[in-house]
What does this fold into?
Amino acid sequence: MRHPRLLAGRAVVAFAMAAALLTGCGVQQTGVVEAGGSATVAVSASPGRRVLLLYFLSSDDRVTPVFRMLSNGDEADAHPPPVSRAETLAVLFDGPRDNEIAAGLHTELPRPQGSLQVDATDAGVTIHLPIAVRTLKPAAVQQIVCTAAYAEGGGAAEVTIWGEDGDLPGTHCR
It folds into this structure.
């Protein structure tokens, strides 16, 4: 016959071990921990194609990068020239393609009547648009700023936008 204290002791130990397993051994749940910048993705074009980086808006109005390939017309050219900022911005103002819209992307940019002009110096990028710019939503401004900043560089350029109704303060892609 087993001793009742021994059985009770074993039951207490078994209960304590089960409780420890069920509670995760005291590890507390934590929130998201920031661990550096966003991921970097390298995109390269196939021969005869050039890469564009455009910024459209996601379904929750976040500025979202989109890569597009443009034909250079010469598939034998392994290193076609980069697309200029003015060309890139013109494509941005054309808006998202059907497949991009189906993926939930949209734009807050109007279609300009006329051409745009881009001037770039070591001090930054200035864009002259044939539209009113002071009434643009902040997300639309960031679409322009990010697309212009990353078009021919690493994205650090300060971008100033001029329009038919004046200019906006110089800003960086956020």
The helical segments are 4-22, 85-94, 98-102, 138-151. Residues 36-45 have pLDDT under 50 and may be disordered.
